[in-house]
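user: Kindly work through both lines:
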Amino acid sequence: MSTQSTYKYPKIFKLESGKKLRTLEIAYQTFGKLNANKDNVVWACHALTANADVLDWWEGLFGNNALFNPNEHFIVCANILGSNYGTTNPLSENPITGQPYYLSFPEFTIRDLASAHHLLANHLGIDTVKVLIGGSLGGQQALEWSLSKTQTIENLVLVATNAVHSPWGIAFNESQRLAISADRTFYANQPTGGLKGLKVARSIALLSYRTYQAYADTQLESVNDKTTGYRAASYQNYQGEKLCKRFNAYSYWYLSKAMDSHNVGRGRKSIAAALDEVKANTLVVGIENDVLFPIVEQQYLAKNINGAQFSSISCAYGHDGFLIETDKLTNIIGTFLKESANKKIIKLNRTA
């Protein structure tokens, strides 16, 4: 059973910055049924330009015949604040002006995304999340949510993510925003504003998502006499245009800034001390040749989260491997969850 819904938060939503949204709508999808004990919840946090249909974009890990399937689990995926797939975003109507927000939309952080997840979980009557999982920006959300001490998170799965966004990652994001802001239409307050810049931004982003080997494997020329019209050039154009057909420059701008804001140490004693506060059984998965989120960042997470397990996978596609290598992830995560379930049984028997 699959359901598409929108939750309208009845109160003013206060952001970490202190600014407020008078209206907050959260588009989300659920798959399967919440069981009587309410202990079969799997919550997936999506990455930068994805949506709430996790069975589509994480196919192989989620699906009818996958590790996370609607027959066993109640799967929830919420479209994040600022994204343009049904949740309040810069193209939403500002209730004060009656016009879209555009660049007057308040900046928000990863913690704000986690706060929205918390509100939706309350609305759905969820007190315990059996598995909270996210990759990349989704992993940042999952980590912050696990630190919020709201719902109980039993198992936390962090894939290709980090505790604080790096100067390298921020530089990539700023380069993309520079491309967007170089497009004069970005300041024209129209839904299609900044699309030429967004196309360039996507091209820049792909270079951080993929690797030298990935391009060599898929875009290498089969002839030696070309002087123009290269496959790699066509590919960059195609991917940029593809994103422009389904996303907008304003959401991309704000979400990249939210990613830059990620730092679990902000307002806490330190980054390491914050990670030590994670209480969930935690699995951290890194991709060995990830350019954007190097594996040292996942190793740091695993080292500083008490009792965390660490695994790595190899993928020629680099960072995008968290979406591609679903067979490897299924084996790693499946084994982790079985071990966690056994530990829980042993603990219950000892206290009985």
Remarks:
- Residues 326-351 form the longest helix (26 residues).
- The two ends are 36 Å apart (CA to CA).
